[in-house]
Specification:
The protein is an alpha+beta fold. Helices cover 23% and strands 29% of the residues.
Length: 129
């Protein structure tokens, strides 16, 4: 067998092994230990604690939960048990406005970063005194 055929065979075996672990192992592991349901909150709408296409989620150092509310063009903040705290944002392109936000992240200083897909930007927010 030529050297190039040996490398090709080795590459195919490696690819098959990776596919096995990517496709079958996670399904097996999940089948063995399903997650336990804990809590849910929210409903359809535009009121406090309601969502219209919720998206990304982030958690700050106090375990508050930030949820992207894509079609309401806002971010909502909740306690770790789903209690509504605050919201911000509206449809638009000005500072603090969003056009279909899709992601949210919180850094170690609790600054909140929002990816604003329709405006092609990221906005950074800090807690106001």
């Amino acid at each position: 067998m030529s050297t190039s055929k040996k490398y090709l065979l080795g590459a195919l075996i490696l690819l098959a092994s990776v596919l096995f672990f990517v496709v079958f192992v996670p399904q097996y592991a999940l089948a063995q230990t399903p997650p336990c349901f804990l809590l849910k909150w929210g409903s359809t709408g535009s009121g406090d604690g309601q969502f219209n296409a919720p998206g990304g989620i982030a958690i700050d150092s106090s375990n508050n939960v930030y949820v992207v509310d894509k079609s309401n063009h806002r971010i909502q903040k909740f306690t770790s048990t789903g209690g509504f705290i605050t919201k911000w944002g509206s449809s638009g392109s000005g500072d603090g406005q969003f056009n279909v936000p899709i992601g949210v992240a919180v850094d170690s200083s609790n600054n909140v970063y929002v990816s604003d897909s329709g405006n092609n930007r990221v906005q950074k927010f800090a807690s106001c005194p």
